[in-house]
Hints:
Blueprint: H1 3-14, H2 19-25, H3 33-41, H4 49-59, H5 63-77
Helix pairs in contact: 1-5, 2-3
Amino acid sequence: MTKGAQLIKEWRTGRGMTQYDLGVACGLSPSTAGARISTYEAGKCIPDPSRLAKIEDVTGVPMRAWTERLEQDQAKAS
């Protein structure tokens, strides 16, 4: 698991939220919420800036922390 993905998962599980719960709280469609968060946590895709902003609103973790870790992960994967 990548560091950025780990950060999302740690925050979510530390609050007893499912992937679905976090996705819906971030404004994702209930039909795709769990699957979308799963792809973020698996490091298969990086949320776009507007989605990161919503994750920041829900979690209280600054977007900069998410993007720095996610960009580091992406650079390592290349």
